[in-house]
Write a structure and sequence with these properties.
By secondary structure, the protein is mainly α. It has a domain at 2-37. It has four helices and no strands. The protein has helices spanning 2-10, 13-22, 27-37, 92-99. Helix 1 (2-10) runs antiparallel to helix 2 (13-22). The longest helix is centred in the first third of the chain and has 11 residues, at 27-37. It is flat and about 100 Å long.
């Protein structure tokens, strides 16, 4: 039963309660254990050191820009017409064949 209790303790909390009662632990002991189990982990905040970057000033050469006029081309969209498939009369061809047409 010892190994079983250990296994259950790893798994389900409800089973854990049942087993501790079986082992002869009082309610108070259980409560105390449950209280001890709830430990909050404090997250340590790491402080990041900021490195100051020295900015180098670059001298900009002024370039004269020539303005180019852009001609806009209008694209004509061709609409494709879908041709409807003719609905064939059900079994008509077969009938004609039967007649010997």
């Amino acid at each position: 039963l010892a190994c079983e209790t250990r296994r259950h303790r790893q798994r389900h909390a409800s089973n854990r309660q049942v087993i501790t009662l079986l082992k002869g632990e009082g309610e108070e002991d259980q409560k105390r254990r449950r209280r001890r189990r709830r430990r909050r982990r404090r997250r340590r905040r790491r402080r990041r050191r900021r490195r100051r970057r020295r900015r180098r000033r670059r001298r900009r050469r002024r370039r004269r820009r020539r303005r180019r006029r852009r001609r806009r081309r209008r694209r004509r969209r061709r609409r494709r017409r879908r041709r409807r498939k003719k609905k064939r009369a059900a079994g008509r061809t077969h009938l004609l064949k039967d007649i010997g047409f």
